[in-house]
């Protein structure tokens, strides 16, 4: 056979083969098999929100952002008595950015916040016709959908987080959008996005702890956000919610500076013993802005029993100490200013801002009004906010839940119209500084 004839036969065969593939192959299915995808795909838009199905759905707004896979939403009171549904995203586990600090946790939290902040509409959806609590009993498992002004279509945020490599799948295959969720995660792996990149997280602090004082930390707190720090202080109060308050005295300014330390579930018995009230301790942890509480805290603590002198450990330095309970007049608390050195310049800051997290005492407060948390499903059911006055100045005092010796709730009748002395921790709520009281013994009725 001549070379020319052989070339013609090969060319004809190729044409026939191409024609068969193009004309004789199966049609692309209307709902393609996600597992067969080889090119990069936007899985967050490949699934569609169907408002006609029987799953529970609700249009919501954001109350607060917690982390990448948890958001608190405003809902009607006939859905949740207190008007808030704490949404835990189905199918995903983002890296931690609250108690424990993990690589890409901050980026995942910021991703969720950016998407929902830009949304013109947010809809949450359950797996079935009811709102189902997670293992904590306080959060509810949801798919989160959002749309923006740029698009009329809703996107599935759970799947979008997966396809960007900002979460690991969590029982993803079993959900109603499980096929797309699994495919989105597989695609993120194939393309090496974020947690699958093998690269260091640019927002994560890998260095050794920065040694400083509580004064330096408190006066320049924003500069240390996301940074691992180490400092000494006295444990003054156990918050009862997996955290303690620590304070330290600075002779130069004649002030105490304090910080809330959140230890979460990360410490064993030995670590918890270190954080006993009255101990002087060395704290090593990461500074974090806690969005829900609108405040800074230190978290991500470690304690290795077998290596108590490990520089990354929290450590007990001494014991037998007591809180300062600095006697503070109401006008100073509400209107006072203090000089603060920041970036080699002096500025003024509110006294209460600099005293955050420290123990104070205030006397001769007249209780003018009492607000009581009345949501029975809330852990704060029965906690009170006392609006007090002294010398024409209004001071807010917030209590935890108080109970009498017989176990009954202490109610507003105990304080309304009375004159009181209080001991507590300087705290903030909705931009207002207040004194938070953790024991009924720390409110003394004087008149």
Q: What does the model show?
A:
By secondary structure, the chain is of the alpha+beta class. The chain has three domains: 43-196, OB fold (Dihydrolipoamide Acetyltransferase, E2P); 210-318, OB fold (Dihydrolipoamide Acetyltransferase, E2P) (Beta Barrel), CATH 2.40.50.140; 326-445, Nucleic acid-binding proteins (OB fold (Dihydrolipoamide Acetyltransferase, E2P), Beta Barrel). It has helices at 3-24, 43-46, 105-117, 157-163, 178-191, 214-219, 269-274, 330-335, 351-354; strands at residues 57-67, 70-74, 84-89, 91-93, 121-125, 140-147, 155-156, 168-170, 210-211, 228-238, 243-250, 255-262, 280-290, 295-299, 315-318, 326-327, 337-342, 345-350, 359-372, 384-390, 393-399, 419-429, 432-437, 443-445. Helix 4 (157-163) runs parallel beside helix 5. The strands form five sheets. Strands 9, 10, 11, 12, 13, 14 and 15 form a seven-stranded mixed β-sheet that branches. Strands 1-2-3-6-5 form a five-stranded mixed β-barrel.
Helicity level:
10-25%
The whole-angstrom Rg is 28 Å
CATH class of the largest domain: Mainly Beta
Strand-pairing-aware structural class: alpha+beta
Major pleated sheet: 7 strands, mixed
Q: How would you state the average pLDDT, rounded?
A: 89
Number of strands: 24
> How many structural domains can be distinguished in the coordinates?
3
> Total number of helical segments?
9
CATH architecture annotation of the largest domain: Beta Barrel
For this structure, the CATH topology of the largest domain is: OB fold (Dihydrolipoamide Acetyltransferase, E2P)
The rough form would be described as: globular
Low-confidence stretches: 1-32
Instruction: Calculate the terminal CA-CA distance, rounded to whole Å.
Output: 118 Å
Quote the beta fraction.
25-35%
